[in-house]
Protein 1
Amino acid sequence: MCVPNCDLSGSLIVCADKHNGIWVMAKYANITGWGKCMPPAVMTNEDMATVLDTTDEWIKTRTGISERRVSHVPMSDLAAVAGFRALAAAAAEPEEVDLLIVATCTPDTVIPSTAAHVQRKMGAVKAAVFDLNAGCSGFIYGLAVATAMLRSGGYRKALVIGSERITWFLNWSLRDTAVLFGDGAGAVVVEPSERESGLLASHLGCEGDALDALLVPNFGTAGNRFVEDYATFDVMFDGREIFRRAVKGMALEVRIVMEELGLENSDIDLVIPHQANERIIQSLANHLGVPMEQVALNIGSYGNTSAATIPVAMCEALEEGRIRPGSNVLLAAFGAGLTRGAGLVRWGERTTPLGESDAELPPCDQTALEIMSEAIKRTG
């Protein structure tokens, strides 16, 4: 990629390139924009109790969830609106994006990628695009990949989106999974930086021996497409096994990242964990020795939105003033696979958006229960 004649001084590595003349490799990749999109239809625990053998108290005490959102539009619509809002916050245009990553496990279509749908809806015509499926760890994986690609010098403006429509997969006869999940999207813009900011370190892993603990078994070529019940895409979920592995796995990844940077737990300003279960989040905070006041927690309002949980929580932390210039923000997640990951983001100089987008979802004239009525009838 580079000829030997490189200037390695400073924060930018500048090399001669035989095709383009100059190739600039950045040491850092800063988050310059952020945005989220949550569907308007709210399904409360009381709504759940009308179709499931459950109560508000049963759900809250086991998960911390009070309500979740149900999308009336394809997942790519959520992703596109979140993307437009992130670009506006960075004062950037879709045509400037040259890398678009959609972290999701609930794609619009198997072929093509959801990222291609998002590119078309946003007009990001110059972007290389692909989906990344690491389950609930997807956003950290996507941010790590985008950071590496930006630091290589080959790309200048990345849009990383975590977006899910998990309610589409739910079997309403399975109470333990139906109460957990919701829909939503969050996005960030990432650009090369001369300052020490952005994702400074990350570490990713997977425990494939436990992949059966969280699985949608029929959504792929391993299944027999000709059997009568092939269209049943149930989320199979072993909550105890996931809980047991989640805290241990996230803590391991966090320790690797912190040791790489030479940081102590006391150096952490804010922890943004994957929002899967309030008990798991509390256990992780205890393990890290971090008070819950320094932990982003919004699972009560949205449930588990998989790859969207961390970017959505990041947007809300910025709105609430919990992230300041120079803040050390620790990200940690686990998900289907069982994937896991952690990363340390040092926030840049700006914590307020440079602009706002007028992008909105189409109007919704149904309640959450009405949107899900056919699925409830068929699986409940």
Protein 2
Amino acid sequence: MIAAFFLKKNSILIVHPIKEFSGSLKSIEEYVKLLKNKYEFIFLTPKGLSSKRLSKFGRVIQVWGLSKFDNSQLGYYKNLRWLLIIREVVFLFPTILAALYIKFKFKKLSIIHFNEITLIPTIYIFKSFFQIPFVLHCRILFKKDNYFGKKIIKFINKNINKVIVIDNDVKDSFPKSFKTEIVRNIFIKENFIKLKKNSEYLNLGYLGSFLKYKGLEDLIKAINNLNKKNYKIRLFLAGNFIRKNFIIEKLNLSNNVSEKILINKNIILLGHLNNLKKFYQKIDILCFPSYLNALGRQVFEAGMYSIPSIVCIKKNSDSFINYRTGLSFKNPGSLKILEKKIIFFYNQRYKIKKMGKEAKKLMIKNYDINKNKIKLDRIYQRLI
């Protein structure tokens, strides 16, 4: 007979879907740091970097994979990429085993917090075993009008006790009648001394997974084009490739950028960094020319360090003001427009400091640590 672990009254299971480092992982880490003295956290996540990082904050249950379904506006499943559904069906089995294990091992869980809306199949499985409050954390723009979107909305309304969104952009991607609460990402900033840089070079930065849909390939092509025109521009890359799978690579279904494109004297690879201040010390501008039509966590984090950004978003955001906290453009994949934005900062270096100050002001206003910590704490308290 398996011995049960009897936990404290206020115990929360956080289910995180991605094994690699990501903005959603960093965000949940920051909240756990602030609330770990009040709650006992347990984590369920695929074995990898995320499980190692989360082990600092509580018990980690590692799993081979968690079943997901991506109905984001990016349109993850296109053409042959629908074959990836096979992987998610296979992952149903370790997900069921994980749910059973947690059910018998942890008798007094108070809440289960799912750290992304892609976990809908996993939530469905857990709902069969647990009758405790479920919290769903939504971080990506949702596709609400297609067949799957409507079905998912119905499922969430029936099975989720509280839906958290990270900003107004994510909130607006759901139906107006859909009840959500905004709890913004928080940023525990470390102080650092800004390094003196070679004034000849404009130092751009990219932070995140090396993925095509995040615009990294476009950014590198734009920099190469400008360097050929004698602009002195460098790119500091912090991050890594998403896990490589032989079959996915052979079928050309991978979203990773080509390794060959990274071989360039003006690209400095920093790898995965636990201490991000090393990255922000080196750059003048953060670049996030993503196809996701959303601002990444790194844009807000850069703002906290007084660093403006170049981003690709289709409409104004409450967390980014064009020509005030950085520069934005609407058409992902447009190299000429991206090049123009880079040239703008190259020719007007004083704008970097000016926009950086404005970015910090806006981040402090929107991403107050105590205010957002209290919001999440109150959600937990109401559900317990």
